[in-house]
Amino acid sequence: MIRFRSIIAFLALLMGPMSLAQDMGSQGALLDKTYTELELLEEEAYQNDHLDRLRMLCGAHVEKAKRENNTIETAKGYIYRAITEPFALGLQYADSIIWATQGSDHPQYPTKGYFIKAGNYYVAGHFREALENYATAYQFALKKGNKAQQRDISMGIAAIRSVNGQPRIAADLYQRALKLLQGEPDFERELYGDHILLLYNLSLTHLRLKQLDSAASFVQQGIDRSAHMGDRESVRDFTLVGAQVDFYNGDLEASRDTLLKYVKELEAGPKAIKYYYLGKIADAQGKPNRAITYFQKVDSLVRDTGDPFPEVREVYLRLITEAREKGQLDRQLGYIENLIHYDSLLSVERQGVQDQVVVAYDVPFLKAQRNEVLQQLQDRKKWMVGLTSLLVVFLGLVGYLTFRNRRNKRRLRELLEGPSAPLEKKPPGPKGALAVPEDIQEDLLARLEAFEDSDAFTDAKLDLPTLAEWFRTNTSYLSMVINHYKKMSFPTYLKELRISHAVARLSKEPQLLKYNYQGLAETFGFGSGDSFAKAFRERTGVYPSKFLRELEARQKHDDL
Fold it and tell me: Which of 63, 182, 191, 239 is 20 to 30 A from 518 via CA?
């Protein structure tokens, strides 16, 4: 679903050389890697949910940065810990990012630390603290002119306003974020995740405002865009919002059919909301027993997740009435307790008049009703009074986790649909622009074309002097021609050829899928498995491990 994650001693943040030395056998080599290499390894571990390895990599990243007195890289080493650790420890890592970069001129820091801290508070339901940190982050983003961060922060603040009964203000903030997004080049493709999230939030916000035409418009835009990108999950989510629009437009059968088609695919929180609408439809169709069944499912899911939604109050009032009419005092009492508990959760952060009415009148009334039922049950059993603690489920970042995964899936689909784009073979500019005789330029271009059509570039020992010797020219002429006509340096040119060749052969030769990284590196001209993996990731945007797994899966499917 399109939506926005044990207290551990703070000493864990401060462990330096001593903790690293305890695992030097595996971490020591990491300190020799570049920061870019560490970031690639961290992202791969994160994407594959290898959290222990991720912690080790982050530890090496921070240790290397501290040794080199590099505050920005120190902060980068804390990021994955801040977004993957439990709430209390995640806050401490976010504070470490802020502390390390306070006063920095970097365009993204310390803004990112405050943004991550706000996201942690938001997921935990601490909306005032989340809003305070979003506000601080926004001031930094404005000061540094970082429009991308301004957009992301606006979306976070809008989410807080929306869940706290201020959908109109939220809609304005989402519209502002959408305008910033639309100012980015090729935003529909390059910023697909942010774009689809904004369309989804705008559709929900206008639905809450009962602006059904606007909600339906954003739903259709979302369906069209996500369908174009082959994003089935987002198509489903927009279709389900469309079912809610159908409900308010009175098309109950269409709404019910859509909800029933997809509801079982959803996680607990979104599923509870859809069961609420199924219950409302059943009531409207004169089927009260079916409505109660759906509302009981809502109760069960909300108790499991500890994550109520505004309409849950209506659900419990209906269940309380039904239990009272049947004389089922135990059930009545349980629903009353749940309603008191969730009313408190939903009301504590709100400041509107409606929320004050809930706190001042409805909650005391429900407490009095609870006491009456307890008195009736006094002769039947002893009642152990106590409210259960709130179970907080970390559902993921504003967009940072969900949409990164979707972006990677999109890149993988694009890579599997066809071979990598070939290198440009036509000259991009006039031949006279180089200090190389035109006849030599023509000769070298012809030789390069033949070289690209061969597999000579898979020789791991090949370098610029060797190729120049093959072409019977000097390295200066050859380097200038490659830089001018291929728009890249010789090492990059060589890596592009090798990775394009690797993608094509891996797609056509299943026996290569049995090779490990080192074997593939040797086959395609790389010195090591790590250099092959890094070049593959840089060229395609996809980790070779994911590409190989998908090819293996397709091979097994074809063999059936």
Answer: 63
